[in-house]
Structure formats: structure tokens, C-alpha cells
Amino acid sequence: MSAPAAGGARALLAGSAVSPGRRRRDRAARGAILAATVLALVPLVLIVYYLLKKGLGAWNGDFFTTDPTGNTFFKNSNIGGIKSAILGTIEMVALASAIAIPIGVGVAIWLVEYGRNAVFANIVRFFVDVLTGVPSIVFGLFVYIVLIVGTGTSYAGWKGSIALSLLMLPVVVRSAEVILTLVPDGLRESALALGAPRWRVVGKIVLPTALPGMVTGILLAVARAAGETAPLLFTAAYTHETTTNLGSFMNSLPVQIYTDVTSPTPRVVERAWGAALALVVMILLLNLIARLVSRRSRLA
Amino acid sequence: MSPASSAEGSPEPAAGTVAEASPGGGGGGRAHFQDQLQQLERHALGGLDLIVEQLDRVLEALQHRDIELAQMVIADDDRVDGRYLEVHQGILSLLALQAPVAGDLRLVAALLHTIKHIERMGDQCVNIAKLIPLSGYDAPVDPDVVEAILKMGAFARSEVVQCKASFAGRDIGLAEDLVRQDREINRLNRDIFRAAIEIGDDLDRREWAMHMTLVARAIERIGDNAVDIGEQVAFVVTGLFREFSDSSRQQPS
Amino acid sequence: MSSTRPEEMTDLDPDNGPETARADRPATPASSGPATIVPPEARRRAAAARSADAVGVRLEGLRAFYGDAEQVKGIDLEFKANEVTAIIGPSGCGKSTMVRCINRMHEEIPGAHAEGRVLLGDADVYGSGVDVVAVRRAIGMVFQKPNPFPTMSIFDNVASGLRLTARRGELNEKVERALRAAGLWDEVSGRLSEPGAGLSGGQQQRLCIARSLAVEPAVLLMDEPCSALDPIATLRIEELIEELKQTVTIVIVTHNMQQAARVADRTAFMLAGELVEVGPTQEMFTTPSDPRTEEYVTGKFG
Predict the structure, then answer these.
(1) Could you report the per-residue pLDDT of A64-84, keeping only the tens digit for each?
(2) Residue ranges covered by each domain of chain B
(3) What mean pLDDT, rounded, does chain B reach?
(4) How far is Cα A146 from Cα A152, in angstroms, rounded to an integer?
(5) So what's the ipTM on this one?
(6) What number of C-beta contacts closer than 8 Å exist between A and C?
(7) CATH topology (fold) of B26-248
């Protein structure tokens, strides 16, 4: 290949200038992408705006410290706050997480470290994928049929947790599996070559390395569980008072919102918005805490 | 072969294949290096052609007492020396840049020795050439001695040609055969020496005869150098260095 | 280039001396190969310094499979104690696979298995009842890409071998000893709690070597340990190998023949799953016996 002469080099560079047609197309594409981004942001911004506008007004001291009273008919009656809903959500989601996270991470570990590409492992993966698409109401109905109608017992908070955990499980499995697969094989190899049994390799090397990524995926599952209404309708039902007995009916924020939003009393509707705002804020806080925790664990 | 080559290492279950040794073609056959090595060998062995030329001319000059021809031989030794420098530089270059190993390394080492021997041969031709004017313009006094010297020269010439052929063809048999011819040269050398002694008291003839012994010695050295090159051929092929025979040791007369 | 002047012709020829000079030249023994370069005194000193801890490894009829495909086709090879043996060969010849069979890492790949015997000292690593984990503690491995554990500090990285294998003992002391043996102590002694991933490539690889050494193996396998490093880091690790061989037996797989030539006492050449030739490195690179070896080391293929 012969090199161009000095003058020819300049021509070489000048000749490759961007043509006006190309510049137009570039700008058009950029504009389209920007428009799509703005379009996607609009509803998000609107949601936040409405939440704040309509819900913030409901927030006051009583809002968080009193239970809903159920006296919603009369205009000036004390309708109460949403304490039982908040606590109920926290309790039920905590129990659901305690069930779904260990099991889900365990399944993911098995799939990545032991099952790998075996036929059975691929079948499991297939079913997990199917479960991620199952509507949440189906989980609620399943628990309702099996644990309430089937046993002849009544609604309970823990049954709601079961339904929620079924909902969380495929999400936890999928996201944990993805992160575990991202852990470089070289780390496993080195640990194995040092003379460590595989379970120690997984526990002491693979999991800690995967932890920051897994936390994000798990948070998604928790957030989803906290916000689902349908499963709880047939399992934990609804009640006013705060209770720590997971064996009884239990209130929850989604159900509270569901109940309040159709009320004719404007203050009750406002309470529904306030509860929605509270739910979103709770999930946001959860997110922040989890990120702080994972960041510290990475440096340890 | 540069260090820090690209990564391999992962246990892929790929079948190992032996690529055909292809001439000319990227890093697959080190074609460029092989070319350079062959060129270097040709250049070095070409020095032997120069030696044959020098030897022919100096023997003719000796026979016809041609002083001008002798001067040409002396001047042309620069060509041999120049070739020595070129080959030497080429060898250094190959060693530094290409890191030859195994057979290639032995060849490079052998070429270094060989070009040194060629350079020595050239010097011996010059030594002979320098002796010619000293022989004087008088007719040579002993035709037998002259004949013996020319015969020695012929053997030496044949040895030079043969050592080149043996190197180029990596023919150990041919190399070992050089010893036979070298023995003849040694025999003639001894004969000339004896003849010189027998010339005895005749001052003029004696001086000439002494010079002829020196010429004979120079030719004998050329033969030795050719045998040395033959030993290098054996080294290149077998990796062992051994002397064919101590052809330089003179029998007590 | 000097041609003697006629007056000096009576002097002896400067290049050759008297005719008997040739006989005086020290005769190289006709039977043996080229003389070894290491002077005998140094060799004796090195032999005395060798510890008794390292053992040799011998492969007998080793075959390795990926499913049904035979990648390593019956190898008999000995790695002598306290020596560095290099394995060279073109890509795909099976040298990495073979080495991974020595510490039984090959069977970690799904569908892969090995047959034959691998003797560590006099014990078959593939014998029945042998604990794979114990094998790997005795036979350490350093990989091509330096991979310190990312969540751990330098200290924890070196100690991880001890912790993962639940070894007792004074951690601080062992970590320091391992880091010194790997030639890394001077550079990191002041920052042992910093993350291991913050070191340069060459330092990371030495950290991985320290990590393997902390477990005090008898044999160290190195699978192209320098191919991801720059030349200076490579040379430092080669010097390290020279020191390490006094305490461990080293097997190094390398793509780089110059490296094998610099570092190894013995070199083995593999081709298409078979062992073509093995011998002292000096012989392999000056007078190899097998023509395939000659072709490979001179670069005619590969």
C-alpha cells in the first residue's frame, strides 16, 4: 500500500468530511431518541407530581400514628391514619422476603454452580421464566384455594406473605442467576485450585463478589411485592387495627389504597393518595439503605 | 518471536493440527527470517568463489612471474575482507533480531566460523602474492619445485570448491573427503621443504627455495582452512563438533 | 585481517601458531552434546540448597477427554523435583489440558474426564479414595489472567488460601512469608489492607503466586503466567521462578519459546495431544532429536 504524498494526505482527510445528508440523518436520529426519552419521562414525572400534589396534603402526625377507623361516611368523622397499613406491609413483605430470598438465591446458585447446562437445569430455568409472567392475582388465587378453601381456615397475614413470596421468587432467581453468571470463572478456578471444596468457593468467593449486583435485583423483587394488591385481597384480606399476629387478618398499603380510593368522601380519597406516596417513599428508602449496605460490603 | 504473545491457555477441545511449512506467508513460517538466513549463507559461501578466483590468479602470477597480477590479488583482498564484515554484521543482526534456535542457530554459528576461515584463506593468497616479486625476475631454478607448488595449488583449489559444495549441500561425506586431498597437500609440502634443504649451498637458489617453502606453507594453510569448513558442515548437520583428523600435524621428516 | 609482511613470514602465522597448536585446542568430547553452560560449582551449590519438601510428578499413560473427544493421547512424562519444566507446543496441542489433569482441575469441566496415573511422589492423584481437595492443596496453580479476589484486601487475598482450606496457623507470619517468596513484600508491606485489585498487572500476578504459595504446595503449575503481562513484569516473574524452584517443583506452560529457553531446566514439546520430545532445555534448543521439534522451535509452523 503506497502512502499518499503530503498534499494528498490533506485531501485524504478533507475528502472524508461528513456529508450534509449524513449530518441530517444523525440529527434526526438523535432527535427521535431524545423524543422517546422525554415521552417516557413524562408519565414518570407526572406520577411523582400527582403523588406529591395529592398525597402530601394527607400527611400529618395522625396519618402515621393512627389506624384507619372505618368511619368514612360522615363528613367530619375521624377517619384515622394508615398505621396498620404501613406496619402490615412491612410485616408481610418482610416475611415474604425471608422466604423468597434464601430460596431464590439458593435456586440461582444451584443453577449456575451445579446444574449448569444439564437438561434438568434448563427445565428449571424454563419454569422460572414462565412464573415471571404469571399475573399476580393467580398467585393470590392459588394460595386462596390451597391454604384457605382447601384447609377450611380463614384469611391470615402469613398466607398473604406466601402469595407475595411466590411472586418474588422468579424475579429473585432470575436476577441472582444473571449476576452469578457474571462472576468471572477465573475466580472460581483460582479458588478451586487453592484446594477449597466447591461450597466454600461459592460461599466465600462467588457470593461476596456477586452481592452488590444481587442486591439490586432483590430490591426489585421486594418493591414489586410491596406494591401488589391482588394477591393480598384473597389471602390477608383487610382489617383496620394494627396487629403483629400474622395469623390473623392484616392490613396493607395496597389494599388500604384500593379500599380508600373508591370512597365518596374526599378526605378518604386524599388518604389513599397519601398512602400511595408513603408506599413510594418507603421503597425509595429501602433502595437507599440497601445501596449503602452493599457499598460498604464491597470495600470490606 | 516476540514475548508477550497473544493469549491461549483456555482448555478448548480443539484438535491440534500441524500447519504445512509454507514458504512466504506471515508469521506461519518465518519466511522473512528464512530468506535472510539463506541469503546470508549464499553471501558467505560466495566468499569461497572469491577465494578460488584469488587462488587461480595468484598461482598464475606465480607461474608467469606476473607482478601486476600479484598486485591485483593483493588489492582484491579488500573484497574478501569486506565480505567478512558484511557476513559478520548479518550474523549479529540475525542473532539480535530473530533469536535463531536449533538448526538455524548451528548454521549461524557455523557461518561465523566459516567466514573467518574464508578471510584467512584470503590472507594466505595475499601472502603468496607478496612473495612473488621477491622471487626475482630470474628464471625459477627448480622446475620440480614449481610443479609441486602448482600441484598443491590445484589440490587447494579443488578443496575450496569441494568445501563450498559440501556446505551448500550439507554433505558430510564430501566434507570428510577433504581430508584425503589435504593429505596430498601435506605430502607435497614436505617434499618441497626437503627439496629446499637439498638445494644447499647455492645462495641464489636457496633464497628462492626458502620463499617457495613459504608459498607452500600458505597453500597448505588454505587447505587446512577448507577442512575446517568441512568440520563446520558436520557440526551444522549433527550438532557435534569433531575434528576430522589432525591434518595440520607434520610428520617428522 | 592482518596479512603478515614478508619480513615477518619467518614468524609464526598469528592466527594459528605452530602446526601443533590444533592438537592443543581443548577437544570437545565427541560423544556428548554441547557442554552445559552452568559451571559445575554453581550446580553443586544449587543442589545443596534444594529443600526436601518438593516432590516430583510423573505422568503415566495420561489421557484426557472432553466427552468422547480425546485431547491428550497417552503421555508418559516426568517432572523432576526442584526443577522447572516447560511445556511448549502450538495452540490446541493439549498442553493446558494436560497440566490441568495434574491437579485434577480438568474434571471440573462438565463432561470432561481423565485416565491414567499422575504420581505425586509415589501417590497416584487419581487413586481411589484420594481427596481432590487435598490434591489441590499439594499442587497449586497460577493462571494466565491475574485474578486476585476482588472483594478482598491484599492480606486477605494471600490468606484466602489458608482460610478456604481451613488451615490453622499464624496467618500474619504465613502471609508475610508468602509475600516475600513472591517478591512482593517490599512493595505492599505498608498497604496490606488495600484492595488486591488495585495493584498493577505484574503485581497482581505475583499476588496470585503468593496466594498459591501460602498454602505451601509441593508443586506449582503455571499456565502461561506471563502472557497477559508487559515484558518487565514478565522478566521479574521469570526471576521469581528461578528462586522458587529451590522450594517447589514448577511446571510452566508457555507459548513463548524464549521464555521456556530462559527459565526451564527441561522442556517438553507437545503436538496434537502427544508428547513429541522432552529433554534438557539446552539440547532442545540447539540440537533437538525429532524433526518436528526442530520445525516448531525454529518457527516453521505453529
Answers:
(1) 888 888 776 777 777 788 888
(2) 26-248
(3) 85
(4) 9
(5) 0.80
(6) 75
(7) Methane Monooxygenase Hydroxylase; Chain G, domain 1 (1.20.58)
